[in-house]
Amino acid sequence: MTDLEKRIKAKIPGPDTGIEIRRTMCDICSPGMHCGINAYVKDGKVIKIEGMDGHPSNDGRLCSKGLANREYIYREDRIKTPLKRVGKRGEGKFEPISWDEAYAEIAEQLNKCKKDYGPESVAFYSGYSKWYRQILRRLAYAFGSPNYGCESSACYTAAFMAWKVAAGEQADGDWDHSDLFLGWAFNPFYSSYMQARHAMELKEKGLKFIIVDTRRTPATEKLADLFLQPKSGTDGALAHAIANVLIERGWIDKPYIDEYVYGFEEYAQYVKGFNESNIEEITGVPYAQVVQAAEMIHENPKMSFNESSAPICHHRNGLQNYRAITALLAITGNFDRIGGQILTPHTYMHVACGFPTREEEYLYETKPKNTKLPIGAGRFPLWDYLEGEMQSMDLSRQILEGTPYPVKGVFALGLNVRMFPESKKMFEALRNLEFYVDTDLFMTDAAKYADIVLPACSSFERGEFKPYRGGLAWYTNSAIEPIGEARSDVQICTELARVMDLPDESLKQGYDYFIQHYILDDYHVKVEDLKKVELPVKIAEVTPYVPMQDLKKGLKTPTGKFELKSAIIEQHPEWGLDALPTYKEPLDDADPEKYPFVFTSGSRIPNALHSRLHKVPRNRSLRPNPTADMNALDCEKIGVKEGDKIEISTERGAITVKVKPTMTVPEGLVNLFHGYSEADAESIMDENHLDPYSGFPAYRSTRCMVRKKEEA
Ligand SMILES: Nc1nc2c(c(=O)[nH]1)N[C@H]1C(S)=C(S)[C@@H](COP(=O)(O)OP(=O)(O)OC[C@H]3O[C@@H](n4cnc5c(=O)[nH]c(N)nc54)[C@H](O)[C@@H]3O)O[C@H]1N2
Ligand SMILES: Nc1nc2c(c(=O)[nH]1)N[C@H]1C(S)=C(S)[C@@H](COP(=O)(O)OP(=O)(O)OC[C@H]3O[C@@H](n4cnc5c(=O)[nH]c(N)nc54)[C@H](O)[C@@H]3O)O[C@H]1N2
Ligand SMILES: [Mo]
């Protein structure tokens, strides 16, 4: 080997080796992360990746998902050209067409839906990807449809709504200054490793932890000073019982409550119902531990709480349970105080970057007026009142039933059918559409139902504006040319807006126009200049936090106070919702004799992200089969050992997976990750097992039966 060959083999960058380091970003998980990546590129191909040193998210590190990027972007089933369906829906038979043909067909068919049934008959949907959402929303509104909606119908928004009900805005934990961290459904070792590191550092410095989880996890083992293990979806009752002890013993901040909290007397009366006589039966948590939690809260006055964008709210009583937990902060005076929970207006994509933007203006200024209500608004009035977008959990029902009005077209970016409970209903709905476009990197089962499939490019093949906490901003550049004819989602939406000549000049100007004029103008930063910086740069000073300022000024709630009793709900008795954070039983109404186990699905695993990485060989090899965790004693009872197959059945259907006997889940619980096409957790859930407050699906609490599946 020559010296040069050796250098190429070692992937050493330089003009002689032809290897260049380009800076890009991992877009596989959520906007709260988005780690920096050095992509080593040779001859237009990424040959190596590593975490970017000095990047505010990851500073040189990458997780098992981030490290998958190279295999992910080069997955064999990447869609390379626009496609037109030639077979039956779902069959997967397509022929390539040009972009011009695709746009022309989409324009014609969407306009036909509009003409025949009205603009609201077309829904604009986005799956988990987020970076283009402002543009997709504008596209929907420019078309005249109120039906913009997304995966956030099942993620984060319910927690956001709980905060809006209580405090008018989202509040984040100031855990750097807390004495006690209430890690309620807190699994950062698997769901966000940077938070796990941070938690471990704070633990070293003396921060105390209460961890509340249905399972044993690294957090319960490494962080918890007290571990409470409630039954799925009983969190509200548990929080009320803790509150009751705090109130009975006078361990609350009465002057603070008198001044800044609304509805305390009624709330205090209500939580009396959760006590020594019933709490263990409802939640499975011994009363002594409830008292211990209250004692810890009393002894460690500054307390904050994690955000929890998913598990607390993935129950039919989820939003109320979330409110019950936030109430603990209010009664102990830990809202709008140092070391407690602090209002953090989310300045961009719900991430608190520390600088105000005009994102909201861009999102809502063109929302059509005098149209029909968005999908789901009638069924989930609080959702509609607070969010005003489509509650996507009602989409398949409305397509199939046509009430209150017909929905005949769907324009989707990254639709995953296996995100919708009773997923076969969504497949059926897609089959019944008059026109359906899906845009994805891969030929998914959802894409196979589409009339037109468009190829989207990955974060390596395009640029993206990206702010980070601390007033930082970044704009990535593409590291490689798009694979095949793939285009970026924002390019697709804006080109379509131009082809259709929709009445929105800002939208037609494109993504950079939005970033420049609505996000950066106030900071005198130019998009072109931002594109030239290597690492995120500070564009704005973050205003220092002033304790109690928001409370003194008055919160954005009807009473201006922290509302234990929601004035919004009180003012709308016709909604049939409770103004107090009342507790209701989470499980569905199936016969407990016939379905003695509880099926919970979703708890994050390190190597997978929803449906995205199950087909990436390296990640798949870490967990080759969809596998359900069951308590070892339960396994003994039903006569299965590690690797045996079990059938999990509910009133909606059955799936077969391998079993993993473990002590991490309690007796009675069956835990399975989701997103697998061959073992679709959603297929055995009920599409109507939803939270009436938020519309969120109860992914984590369905009664089920389990039996050994004999090999055929
Ligand atoms: N059982 C169960 N189900 C759950 C959950 C649970 O806990 N349990 N969690 C819920 C939560 S919190 C969430 S956030 C959702 C996840 O929501 P999903 O939308 O199901 O998420 P993904 O499977 O990651 O991605 C959807 C699609 O987007 C495609 N995609 C990726 N990048 C791009 C892109 O840049 N452009 C386009 N157009 N497409 C792209 C992917 O290939 C994929 O097909 O799942 C929910 N589903
Ligand atoms: N590796 C990986 N990371 C991810 C994702 C992924 O798919 N894979 N998804 C991303 C997304 S979209 C989201 S929303 C976040 C979610 O991030 P997390 O909220 O951390 O997600 P989970 O691990 O599902 O749930 C956290 C913990 O809640 C527990 N839990 C489940 N049900 C209950 C309950 O009823 N009560 C209580 N008290 N605890 C319960 C689970 O056992 C789990 O340990 O993760 C993000 N990060
Ligand atoms: Mo999520």
Automatic annotation (TrEMBL):
Keyword Lipid metabolism applies: no
Any Pfam family hit: Molydop_binding
Cofactors, names only: Mo-bis(molybdopterin guanine dinucleotide)
GO function terms (MF aspect): iron-sulfur cluster binding; metal ion binding; molybdopterin cofactor binding; oxidoreductase activity
All copies of domain 4Fe-4S Mo/W bis-MGD-type, residue ranges: 19-77
InterPro entries assigned: Asp_de-COase-like_dom_sf, MoPterin_dinucl-bd_dom, Mopterin_OxRdtase, Mopterin_OxRdtase_4Fe-4S_dom, Mopterin_OxRdtase_prok_CS, Prok_Mopterin_Oxidored
Keywords: Iron, Iron-sulfur, Metal-binding, Molybdenum, Oxidoreductase
Alphabetized SMART domains for the sequence: Molybdop_Fe4S4 (SM00926)
Domain of life, per lineage: Bacteria
Alphabetical list of Gene3D superfamilies matching this protein: 2.40.40.20, 3.40.50.740, ADC-like domains, Dimethylsulfoxide Reductase, domain 2
PANTHER family: OXIDOREDUCTASE YYAE-RELATED, TRIMETHYLAMINE-N-OXIDE REDUCTASE
Family, similarity comment: Belongs to the prokaryotic molybdopterin-containing oxidoreductase family.
Protein known as: Molybdopterin oxidoreductase
